[in-house]
Design brief:
This protein has 468 residues and is of the alpha+beta class. 62% of the residues lie in helices and 11% in strands. The longest helix has 68 residues.
């Protein structure tokens, strides 16, 4: 009997080694052959794409954010948890072994008789194994593997989002610093004009109304600076939170938005983008997990087959196995639910419906991804042209202001004409600052929309190394 059982166990183990092979996920939409926006030669997106801005302080901030951002650290723990869930799912495919041991001593005495003492000792080993004849357990492992990969892709997407948030917040702070400088320059210009009006008023050339008007203008210009400084402090505090620092603890860094390089980015092809975005890869992985879940629920409709075996030694005596009695037994069991009110079939239908919903969500994400790239390309082209035109307008506005100041000193123009020229220069400078920020944000958004240099093949290799 023992020999037969020993020969039967390996055969049943091999028979129970079913495997789940996921089908590849097809694209629910066909990407266009090229982008509708004007194509231009540019640099391909690299994993460290932010270095293309040639901003040393930005490089330092991003490096720190990747190490110290609490949300990214929490996402990394999610990857660890998914890996442990995968290991648990794989362990279910293996036999479970348990060992037991006991030893006892007892004494008894009947009325008028001597005390009788005795003892017993036993040790045993039990094995339980569910045969995965229908692939339920292997499908569970396949679902856990796909979920693990999706979590890794989610982490990569969160990393790209964090880097883009740091870069955008940094550029917004730089632009606010430039607007503060513009406001201070405009204030100095207004104060200089006020000094000129006061001289003209003392000489009887300017009226009290002109003096009062310019004094009001200077007060308004001075009042415009504090709100900008407040906004700058708030953006800097938000930036410090992103990199894991105290919001208002560090000193203000020194930088200039004009020194930031705006890179020329190659969008490559729409089809290439599909394999370069981790958020899309995560949705594909979840579709694979959903397919595995369907296999699990379908297999649950079929009978379950399990094998158990036990070996036991027992002997009389306390803490002694001398001259033990040996026993070996094996059990092959079959179980099948006969009636459950349709619960298992409903579970299959729910799994199938969930996969359809995930497929539709994936299709929507693909369309959104294509729209995000196209929008970023459009904005890049728009703001590049806008910045060029504003630079030309600024040259003309500054020349007009210079000539108007001369004419006002000579009494040929009124104060209102001078104030209007000053206001034009101020507005154009602000618009130019905003246009440059818009170009930088569009570049960041384009990098993010193109996947931030992420590569699915490289990520898959990392996943394999982790599992090994």
């Amino acid at each position: 009997m023992t020999i037969r059982l020993t020969a039967l166990v390996p055969a049943l183990l091999l028979a129970g080694c079913a495997t789940f092979t996921p089908e590849p996920v097809g694209l629910p939409v066909t990407p266009p052959d090229h982008w509708e926006q004007t194509k231009h030669a540019g640099t391909a997106v690299e994993a460290d794409w932010w270095r293309a801005f040639n901003e040393t302080e930005l490089d330092r901030l991003i490096e720190k954010a990747l190490k110290a951002n609490p949300n990214l650290a929490a996402m990394a723990e999610s990857v660890i948890q998914a890996d442990l869930q995968l290991r648990n799912a794989g362990a279910a495919l293996l036999p479970s072994l348990s060992a037991t041991a006991s030893s006892g001593r007892q004494a008894s005495r009947a009325t008028g008789d001597n005390t009788v003492t005795g003892g017993s000792t036993s040790a045993g080993l039990t094995m339980d194994y569910e045969l995965d004849l229908w692939g339920r357990l292997s499908a569970s492992e396949g679902s856990a593997l796909a979920t693990f990969e999706a979590t890794r892709f989610d982490y990569a997407a969160a990393r790209i989002t964090l880097v883009a948030a740091v870069a955008s917040t940094w550029f917004e702070w730089l632009e606010l610093q430039q607007r503060i400088d513009i406001a201070n320059i405009n204030l100095e210009l207004g104060e200089r004009t006020l000094a000129l009006v006061e001289v003209r008023f003392r000489n009887g050339v300017a009226s009290r109304a002109e003096l009062s008007r310019q004094q009001t203008s200077v007060l308004s210009l001075r009042n415009a600076v504090p709100p900008l400084e407040y906004q700058a402090r708030q953006r800097l505090a938000a930036l410090r939170v992103l990199i894991g620092d105290m919001p208002f603890a560090a000193e203000q860094p020194a930088a200039d938005i004009a020194s930031v390089t705006i890179p020329l980015i190659s969008p490559q092809t729409p089809a290439n983008m599909v394999t370069r975005r981790p958020d899309l890869a995560a949705q594909e992985a979840r579709l694979v997990a959903a397919s595995a879940d369907i296999e699990q629920t379908r297999a649950a409709l079929l009978p379950s087959v399990s094998l158990s075996a036990a070996a036991r030694l027992s002997a009389d005596g306390f803490l002694s196995l001398s001259d033990p009695v040996r026993s070996v037994n094996g059990l092959l069991s079959l179980s099948q639910a006969l009636f459950d009110g349709g619960q298992r079939r409903n579970t299959v239908a729910i799994s199938e419906s969930r996969r359809v919903a995930l497929l539709e969500s994936y299709r929507g994400s693909l369309l959104t991804a294509l729209q995000e790239v196209g929008d970023a390309l459009d904005r890049d082209a728009l703001y590049r042209l806008q910045e060029q035109r504003l630079q030309e307008i600024l040259v003309k506005a500054e020349e007009t202001l210079r000539l108007t100041e001369v004419r006002y000193r000579e009494g040929a123009d009124e104060l209102l004409t001078l104030l209007d020229s000053q206001r034009s220069v101020f507005e154009v400078r602000q618009q130019l600052s905003q246009a440059r920020l818009n170009r930088l944000i569009a570049a960041v958004d384009l990098y993010k929309a193109l996947g931030g240099g992420w590569n699915r093949d490289e990520e898959a290799q990392v996943t394999v190394r982790v599992q090994e």
